[in-house]
Amino acid sequence: MTEPHDPRALFAAERTLLAWTRTSTTLMGLGFVVERFGLFVQMSAGGGPTPLHRGVSLAIGIAFILIGVAVLLVSARRFRCAVAALEPQLRLPGYGVQAPALFNEGLALVGLLLIGYLALI
């Protein structure tokens, strides 16, 4: 049982959110690398990028990025629910609990912008 004003539950929720953030950024990075590596392999084979090859690597890359974006949004939602479920005395006064979730949502927006970038180039 936790004592009044014991921040361990809040910090545990933040650590969990951070783990999901690391996982999602890894997925988005992998998606970018898959898409770019497919282009690199095609160009190093002596020819320019073919539409089929670009389509396959692009689709796989975008799928990884979309999974990363979904993980970011779901984890932000779950973090907000976990913080809301904490008893009021377990929340630290003056400690911003919305910032980590907003950070995840901002990263999700960056992921969507990355998809737009890859689709246009």
Helix share, percent: over 70%
β-strand amount:
under 5%
Please state the average pLDDT score.
86
Shape: rod-shaped
Q: Would you kindly provide a written description of the structure presented here, covering whatever features stand out?
A:
The protein is mainly α and 121 residues long. The protein has one domain. It has three helices and no strands. It has helices at residues 8-44, 51-85, 99-120. α2 (51-85) runs antiparallel to α3. The chain starts with 7 loop residues before the first helix and ends with a helix. The mean pLDDT is 86.
Which features would summarize this protein structure in a list?
mainly alpha; 0% strand; 3 helices; 121 residues; rod-shaped
Helix and strand layout, with pairings?
Elements lengths: L7 H37 L6 H35 L13 H22 L1
Task: Give a concise summary.
The chain is an all-alpha fold and 121 residues long.
